[in-house]
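Minimal example, chain plus flavin mononucleotide.
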Amino acid sequence: MIKEIVNRSSVRTYSDKKISDENIKTILEAGRLAPSWMNVQPWHFISISEQETKNLLYELSFCQNHVKTASHVILCLADITAWDDSKFRKILQSRGMADEQINNIFKNETLYPKLKGDERVLLRTVEQCTYAMSQMILEAENLGISSCVIGALGNELTESNQEIYLKLRNKLEIPDKVYLMSMITLGYNSKPELEIKKIRKDFNEVVSKEKFGQKFD
Ligand SMILES: Cc1cc2nc3c(=O)[nH]c(=O)nc-3n(C[C@H](O)[C@H](O)[C@H](O)COP(=O)(O)O)c2cc1C
């Protein structure tokens, strides 16, 4: 197995050392290259290093200290406009699809979630974004940079902390229909001597062979 999967764990204590622009761009590139439904890529990432913005993110995330002390915070935005007819059509055309095939996709509720409304689109968008987040934390680990995903924050999914969320949206000029889904704190571990044990459910509790509940030998 690739060592980053085994070695990565959430780190919440960061030193003062700043991550270089080159490394931040490599981590963002790992997100950009993630797979998505029909290649819709309904995401946007904002890299934050300014302390003033990190302080606002700290407030938004119910005062989680590692948000304030991280070298960088990557905001993962779910962009539901990526499914708009013209944008999605362009993506499908870039895959070499003929117009007739594309028009059929636009009539199919499974292939084109917009037919089921904005809430369904948001659900499918969030699904896509998690792949990008996953790739970014593994690439960070590859570069010797520690990370922590932050999902406890005010946004459209939690409907909490809306005043601070609105303040953040205005400050960062986030467009309509583009939602902050979650963030990743990044930095160098200030307490690497503390070995973090991976706590996971047993293999046979979460894995079956051929049918639910049937174990591997
Ligand atoms: C979607 C998501 C949201 C999370 N939200 C938070 C959070 O708000 N604050 C935090 O400190 N950790 C957060 N975590 C980190 C989890 O607590 C952590 O991944 C889990 O306990 C497993 O530990 P590990 O990452 O060290 O393997 C989140 C992780 C995920 C995937």
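Residues 3-206 form a domain with the NADH Oxidase fold (CATH 3.40.109.10). The longest helix spans residues 118-142.
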